[in-house]
Design brief:
The structure is a single chain. With about 55 residues, the protein is of the alpha+beta class. The protein contains 1 helix and 2 strands. The protein has one domain. It has a two-stranded antiparallel ribbon with strand order 1-2. The chain is globular, with a radius of gyration of 13 Å.
Length: about 55
């Protein structure tokens, strides 16, 4: 099974709520673009291994 790259961008403002909010999400090329933009803005990034799908 082929792995598909996935990415999300979160915004967290403790004054506006208790939980982070998803501001962008994408797969494949869009995921790469989200990661590139995060790196260029020097935002922290967390990579996790792909989980098996049934």
């Amino acid at each position: 099974m082929e792995e598909t790259r996935q990415a999300i961008a979160l915004r967290y403002d403790p004054l506006r709520g208790d939980a982070p909010v998803i501001t962008a999400q994408g797969t494949a090329l869009l995921a790469q673009r989200i990661e590139t933009m995060a790196r260029s803005a020097e935002f922290p990034s967390i990579a996790t291994p792909a989980s098996p799908r049934s």
